[in-house]
């Protein structure tokens, strides 16, 4: 694996040398060689590559990557430019406009958020084509739980944005004496009206950061 940079190689070294991670690697070698798996293996760790440890201002948790062709590229909720917007992302952009007055972006690539210090982390980092949650039992839960815990331990202040039951179950991993936890229903059309809309996660994140002497996130993807 190529170095991740941004301080992640050192922080995650105990995980990468753990037997459980080595089992994930062996599983992925077989999966990528015999099935179509998303994201592309070279995009697998993009959430780390685009957001150095010492620049993490917020952590946005997704569940697993999009499982249709051309969508997933290693950042939760994000799709490559030119792809149709998934329904959850449409609702995220609606809430962003309601919260901060920022018009919906022209495409669904959230790389600019990652570069602003938003760690766009899925709780499972891979998935088989057309098979949602197909890699949820391969060990990713152990790995990403530890990523959340390590970020919580090593960052002075960050906002953890937890949408939906899967993400909200990670709350015990976060030190709430120094971090902000923002939780609500998932932005999926099935649940967005049950508390996602009106939850104002973007302005609440920025208010928390400013109150703690940190620069806010520029959430505007149109810039």
Characteristic terms for this protein:
8 helices, alpha/beta, 223 residues, 6 strands, two-stranded antiparallel sheet, 11% strand
How would you sum up this structure, described in words?
- It is a single chain.
- This protein is α/β, with parallel strands linked by helices and 223 residues long.
- The chain contains eight helices and six strands; from the N terminus they run H-H-E-H-E-H-H-E-E-H-E-H-E-H.
- The protein has helices at 8-16, 19-34, 46-49, 87-100, 111-115, 140-154, 164-168, 201-211; strands spanning 37-38, 58-62, 118-122, 127-128, 159-163, 180-184.
- It has a four-stranded parallel sheet with strand order 3-2-5-6. A two-stranded antiparallel ribbon has the order 1-4.
- Helix 7 (164-168) links the parallel strand 5 (159-163) and strand 6.
- The longest helix has 16 residues, at 19-34.
- The mean pLDDT is 97.
Would you spell out the secondary-structure blueprint of this structure?
Elements (H helix, E strand, L loop, with lengths): L7 H9 L2 H16 L2 E2 L7 H4 L8 E5 L24 H14 L10 H5 L2 E5 L4 E2 L11 H15 L4 E5 H5 L11 E5 L16 H11 L12
Parallel strand pairs: 2-3, 2-5, 5-6
Antiparallel strand pairs: 1-4
